[in-house]
Amino acid sequence: MMGARIAVIGAGHVGLVMAAGLAELGHDVTAVDVNDALIVGLRKARVPFHEAGLVKLVEQGLGSGRLHFTSAYDEAIPEADFIFLAVDTPPTLAGAADLRNIRNATRSIAGTLNGKAPIIINKSTSPIGTGETIETLLWRALGDHHPRPRLASNPEFLRQGRAVHDFFNPDRIVVGARNEADARAVADLYAGLGGTRIFTDLRTAEMIKYVANSFLATRISFANEVARLCEGLGVDVEQVIEGIALDPRIGGHFFQAGVGFGGSCLPKDVAALRYLGQTYGIATPVLSAVQEVNQTQRTSAVRKLREALGTLEGRSIAVWGVTFKGGTEDVRESPAVEIIGLLMNEGAEIRAYDPAFPDGAPLRVREALHETALDAVRGADALAILTDWDEFATVPLAEVSRLMRGNVLFDGRNILSREDAEERGFNYVGVGRGRTVADLRPRPLAVA
Ligand code: NAD
User: Fold this and answer.
1) What CATH number is attached to the domain comprising 117?
2) pLDDT (0 to 100) of residue 443
3) pTM of the predicted protein model
4) 249 FRET partner, CA 20 to 30 A, in 59, 142, 235, 427?
């Protein structure tokens, strides 16, 4: 289907990519957000976050006349045939997904529908049953005389930092709906894009998203548990991963030891699925272990630095990476931010650097930021690499060593070669990088 009229509610990391991507596919799209400043900026193609190719895509959309931004629901909803919900669903303290934004957006939609019955598609990651909740809220608000809007769930699998690429190159498009015709109508919005179409009911589509993220998180926590074993047993986890990743049943993606996963999705989605289990009386020991391993990877980074430096009090520690992963400015649930906080709490002085200069970081972290990776290491006792930006592997280690006062190098993402670092005199500490066979001195044979 070409040229549908679409409203996208929420113009954040997901909604903006969706809106600009759908406009590029030929649809007429209006993105609605309650954040006025964001909307004013977006009308001038000012994108407040780091996402490769997104500014250009927004500029193209604005230039084509098919992409519009507003903070007024009544400028978008009455005309729309399809309404995507892409508002944030942050975690509550207990781990449940907070549905306030979904509820508010649903009420605002109901208030402006004006007799029409578009398909409303939930793209926000939200608990199993949310589609039904939205339906109930709408029906209650609209009363019996209004035609009933149809609900669909179309979970989003994009990777932050590669979101534009992922929008145009999906591996699958999952649509859950009350009937196949509605599911197909939603899938047709993506006509021309590749990827397998999977049609399900509402609950199954919602479950697929949680299971996908929880499985990715499980792989990381398992890699980290293996890394701990490797540290104890004198084995290099990187070689272990290399040795298993070629097995197509296993694969190498998302199987990386380090300081753990973060971001706005994985931690909250594991927590939300676990919370659902709790409230339905279903034990989820795997999910609990995933969370526990992930949390202790962060504290083990602090322990390793403390051990290598003797104490953290008064030590100067350069930190490369503040965002939750390379390629984004996003610091939500960033392991780096938490580790920096813990190091500061033990009296360390932090000299940070991040290629994205993340505005969202806490003030004391932003105040510790330096202009370049080399500025940050000047006079430092230790360097800790906490985010996997490609740039960090290209900084000349000889220069780093010359500028630093000490020689401790904690590679929390295993992005450097241990041998290179040791050749330059660093005391290299990675994650799960016990000595390899080549490093082990031959042991004397016992003589009878
Ligand atoms: P975000 O915080 O970047 O953007 C959400 C936007 O929604 C904000 O701009 C906010 O102002 C707006 N908003 C909130 N309430 C609103 C309302 N009532 N009306 C209009 N606008 C409103 O969040 P995000 O990262 O884009 O995530 C959105 C959803 O997509 C979440 O449920 C998330 O779990 C899911 N998701 C995110 C990613 C990701 O990589 N970020 C990937 C897949 C799925």
Assistant:
1) 3.40.50.720
2) 47
3) 0.93
4) 235
